[in-house]
Write a structure and sequence with these properties.
InterPro entries: NnrS. There is one protein chain. The two termini are about 25 Å apart. By secondary structure, the chain is mainly alpha-helical. Helix 2 packs antiparallel against helix 3, helix 3 runs parallel beside helix 6 and helix 13 packs antiparallel against helix 14. The protein is about 75% helix and about 0% strand.
């Protein structure tokens, strides 16, 4: 048993969680797509398929990848040994049990109990290291994880009380929290990756004010969703999303380097981050009464921005942290293109054709399938 815990896959958090998260991304969207087209013969999850899909994409898929990334990044920031061996296996099992609980023939209250421990445990593990190392600049990440746990509780309470509005607000608030987390982490790593990848000198230090405004406005966007302000268009709220969009555009302009378009690990991150602009502009248009469906903004965020940034990030981090050259295979580069096309299909094609949903699901599953094909061996084997 000791040998099992010492296997390379349990040496650091990114290995099991990137594998589990990517595998779940492909499986969950395949099931959702088959169900949408009446081709799913399997078990109905507790609460029905829509409730399951809503909950599992942010709190199953996205949270697994966030856990893998932070369990790897925080030891780098603090100089402390990251979670590994049996404690890491235990955290993975808590995540896995939460996924399986939806399909068990048990009361919805028990399903709820299985879901709740993961995010508080993650916050506790990360918090112990950050507090011990006195890394105050990274405390906002603990706040984000805690707020995500609050959103999950809201969503599950909505399931328990059959309150569809509460469920929906919890899930959408979680998505905008993930967007805020992406702006914090993306703002730190994307310019660094571009600078390192192209051998450029570091960007001159800029004022921290835009980044702080972006964080606060991102949190305000999530709170506005959680309290129900996004249940109907409110023209004044479009100003908040315009502000977020302007700050994201300023970042993209500042980071841009023409040479990056020849480097797949860079343009994939950059284009995925640009989807954040699409999402906030779409929200601004919806609040201003100029767009009919809020779900197009939500899926620009969920598929294009979150899906695209996750795929680009796990491909880059997996190579870097296993000591391999930062050169993705041609298949993985195709995966980057496929997930971005899934976003285009879900946002631009769905309003005009029923084929759009199926195509978006197929492109998404193919993208994460290509990651699994190319990276399972990398993540299971020792550092090169």
């Amino acid at each position: 048993m000791g040998n099992f815990a010492s296997k390379p896959v349990f040496s650091l958090g990114f290995r099991p969680f990137f594998l589990a998260g990517a595998g779940f991304a492909a499986l969950a969207v395949a099931i959702w797509g088959l169900w949408l087209y009446g081709r799913w013969p399997g078990i109905e999850p507790v609460g029905g398929m829509l409730v399951w899909h809503r909950h599992e994409m942010p709190f199953g898929f996205a949270v697994a990848i966030i856990a893998g990334f932070l369990l790897t990044a925080v030891p780098n920031w603090t100089g402390r040994r990251g979670l590994n061996g049996w404690p890491l296996i235990g955290l993975v099992l808590v995540w896995l049990l939460a996924r399986l609980a939806w399909l068990m023939p048990i009361p919805s209250s028990l399903v709820l109990i299985f879901q709740l421990p993961f995010l508080p445990l993650l916050a506790w593990v990360l918090g112990c290291d950050l507090l011990a190392a006195g890394k105050r600049e990274n405390y906002p990440i603990l706040l984000m994880i805690s707020l995500l746990a609050g959103c999950q509780l809201m969503t599950l309470w909505g399931l328990q009380t059959h309150d569809d509005g509460l469920q929906r607000r919890g899930v959408l608030a979680a998505l905008w929290l993930v967007a805020a987390l992406m702006s914090v982490i993306g703002g730190r790593v994307i310019p660094f990756f571009i600078q390192r990848g192209l051998n450029r000198p570091p960007l001159p230090a800029s004022s921290p004010l835009p980044t702080r405004v972006l964080l606060v406005s991102g949190l305000l966007a999530a709170v506005s969703v959680a309290v129900g302000l996004n249940d109907a268009p409110r023209p004044w709220l479009s100003l908040l999303f315009v502000l977020i969009g302007v700050l994201h555009l300023w970042r993209l302009w500042r980071w841009h380097d023409r040479a990056m378009w020849r480097v797949p690990l860079l343009w994939s991150l950059y284009v995925a981050y640009a989807w954040l602009v699409v999402a906030v502009v779409a929200m601004a248009l919806w609040h201003a009464g100029l767009m009919l469906q809020q779900s197009l903004a939500t899926h620009a965020l969920a598929v294009g921005a979150i899906g695209g940034l996750i795929l680009a990030m796990i491909a880059r981090v997996s190579l870097g942290h296993t000591g391999r050259p930062l050169l993705p295979s041609k298949a993985m580069v195709a995966g980057f293109a496929l997930v971005l096309l899934a976003g285009v299909s879900r946002v631009l094609l769905v309003p005009f054709s029923g084929v759009g949903l199926g195509l978006a699901a197929l492109l998404w599953c193919s993208a994460f399938g290509l990651f699994l094909l190319g990276y399972t061996g990398v993540l299971l084997k020792p550092r090169a």
